[in-house]
Amino acid sequence: MRIKVRLGLSFSKYRLNNEKEILIELPAGSKVKEVLLYIGVPETEPMVIIKNGKVVNLDDPLRPEDALIIFPPLEGG
Length: 77
Prior knowledge:
Layout: E1 2-7, E2 21-25, H1 32-39, E3 48-51, E4 54-55, E5 67-71
Parallel strand pairs: 1-5
Antiparallel strand pairs: 1-2, 3-4, 3-5
């Protein structure tokens, strides 16, 4: 299944090909933590994860075409 992932500026070191937004392919039944594993973000890194406009945790399941935004708890704008 295809998942859209957008990383906040302070997570730029984890960006693939220096892209702000990426599409990744994961097996059906994957959870949010599999996205972190795929892009190399440690689960211990302080972060907020938004899935389709709602805050989620690492064990939340993913569905095809979900959109994730990952950013630190405090990020200026």
